[in-house]
Structure formats: C-alpha cells, structure tokens
Amino acid sequence: MSLQDKYKELIDTARSAGTGNLQVNEQEGVLHISGDAPSGAVKDNLWNIYGKIDPNFLSGDVVMDIKVATAVEGAKLEVVTQSSNLNVRKGPGVDQPIIGKAAHAEIVTLISKHSDEWWLIRTKAGEEGYAHSQYLKPVE
Amino acid sequence: MRNKQLSTILLCVVFASMVACKGKPSDTQIQAKVTEQLSTMPEVTADVKDGVVTLAGNVADDATKASAEASVKSTEGVKSVVNNIMVTPSAPPPPPATDSTAVVNTADDALRTGVTNISKDFPGADIKVDAGVITVTGQLSAAKWKTLKQALDALNPKKVDASGLTVK
C-alpha cells in the first residue's frame, strides 16, 4: 500500500477542509504534507486523523507541517503550555534574556512573526517580546 | 525612551511589510532583515542576491562565524548562505555553501538550532539531528510526544524517526 493510500483519509480531509497551499509529496519513503489550515480546529482534526492512522506517530513515514492561516497580525493567541508560564524573550532565540511571562491559557496578541518559530507578541500586561510559536494557538 | 519608541515603530513597520509580502520576499527585504539579524555583529557584512546571502568580514572565533550563518539561514526568503567570514587568527577552510530545497531542509545547522529551541521543554527525550533526519529516543507521555512531533515536523526535516521512543 502506498503512503498516499495509507494516509488517504488525512489528505482528503485536509483538501475538503480548505487547507491552503496544500502540498503532498513523497520523498525517500516519507510523505510530506504541508499547508495552511483555515482554523486551529482544522489543524487539530488533521493531527487527530494522523494519530488514528499511525497510533502515537511512531512509523516515521509522515512529516506534517500544517500552519494556521488565521495566525495573522493582530490575532488573539492562547498560551497553550502544559501548565507553566510561557517565557517572553527580548529577541528570537532561547539564548535571549527573558523579559516577561505569559500565564498558561492567557490570551495574547500577535504583533508579527519573526519566523515560523518565533513570534513577537504582546501579553495582557502589555509586555512585548518573542515567544516560541509552538505554545501559541490562534483563538477562533 | 523616545528613540526606543521610534525604533519599535520602525521595527513594526519593517515586520508588517515583510509579512505583507510573504509570498516571495525581495532581496531588499531580505537584506533589511538579515542586517537586523546581524546587528549584534558589526564586523560581519551581508550581501543578498536572488535570495542567496553572502557573508563577509572578520571575526574572532568559529562560534561567532557559525552563529552569524545560523541566524541568517533561518531568515525568511533566504535560499542559501555563502559564508565567507574569515576567522582570525586561525582561519579554517570555509564550509561549502549550503542549499536547501523547498520541501526538505537538509541544512543540519538550521535543524539543530530549531531542535535546541524546542528540546529544552522535553527533558525526557533525547533528540539528535543527522543528514536532515531527526531521531528521538527516550520516554515521553503521549500528549507531550504529540506536541513535540508537531514542533519537529514544522522544522521540515527529511524524517522524524521515533522508533527508539517509548510513549507512556
């Protein structure tokens, strides 16, 4: 069974949910899927389907990079850490000094994206700095 | 204070224009961003042509040279980096220019930087990068592993190999 067949439900759902710039291609036995989901819920759903086809994502035959299209300047973002505070840094990088914290589940504002990884945000307390995008989820 | 405010506004404008032109940043835009990245290294100069950044200048050690390249490489729109920075007193041979394709990021340095940013929050996992492949070993909860897998996939590696990982 080809990878495209194995992950057909995932690809079909990504397509029907209106994922922008959807790209699916196979390289060296790994299926690369990327695109911009119209909402955080669509992204979550795609990851759930992926987890259903490949329990615990252990096969290593997919690399899925789905971004959320609503994560644009001025968007509200929820801090989705496990439970701890999110570090807000002076610059983009873990070597940069911490200038503030955003609480778990706090809603912050996206000012701009330095890169896919580092976003400039404003906290509820008005502090501005860089945080890692992995802990920021657009609020619908 | 006033200067700081001004520069913040300026920064916002620069960022805004970059995001607006996200489709394909022009050399001028890349140049601006790269120059900003290198603001802490005044001895390093950068030239941008067709998305290829050529770094030049003189630095004291290999680490500075590598960090200049790493910080530039992650900049949006940069296709590849030619690192012509000289290290004095001991000048090593310049590394070959790296190139990356649209889909697969084979530049291990960029992957390693990304992994370093992520790994500190996943103490149970050991994450290694080799030839574009990220290998994860150790032990993680299912929820943490899902978060980690999402973050690692976003780095565009060739593959994320978790065959040595135990999910609790």
Verbal overview:
The complex is a heterodimer of chains A (140) and B (168). With 140 residues, chain A is of the alpha+beta class. Chain A folds into two domains: 3-68, Alpha-Beta Plaits, CATH 3.30.70; 76-138, Roll (SH3 type barrels). Chain A is built from three helices and ten strands; from the N terminus they run H-H-E-E-H-E-E-E-E-E-E-E-E. Chain A has a five-stranded antiparallel β-sheet with strand order 9-8-7-4-10, with no helix packed on it. Chain A has a three-stranded mixed β-sheet with strand order 1-2-3. Chain A is elongated and about 50 Å long. The model of chain A has no long low-confidence stretch (mean pLDDT 92). Chain B has 168 residues and is of the alpha/beta class. Chain B has two domains: 26-99, Histidine-containing Protein, Chain: A, CATH 3.30.1340; 108-167, Histidine-containing Protein, Chain: A. Chain B has helices at 2-20, 27-37, 62-73, 108-119, 142-153; strands spanning 44-49, 52-59, 80-83, 86-87, 98-99, 125-130, 133-140, 159-167. The longest helix of chain B is centred in the N-terminal third of the chain and has 19 residues, at 2-20. Mean pLDDT of chain B is 80; it is low at 98-103. Classes of the chains: A alpha+beta (140), B alpha/beta (168).
- The backbone outline of chain A, from C-alpha atoms, is elongated
Number of domains of chain B: 2
Average pLDDT rating of chain A: 92
Residue share in helix of chain A: 10-25%
Largest interface between protein chains, with number of residues from each side: A-B, 34 and 37 residues
CATH architecture of the largest domain in chain A: 2-Layer Sandwich
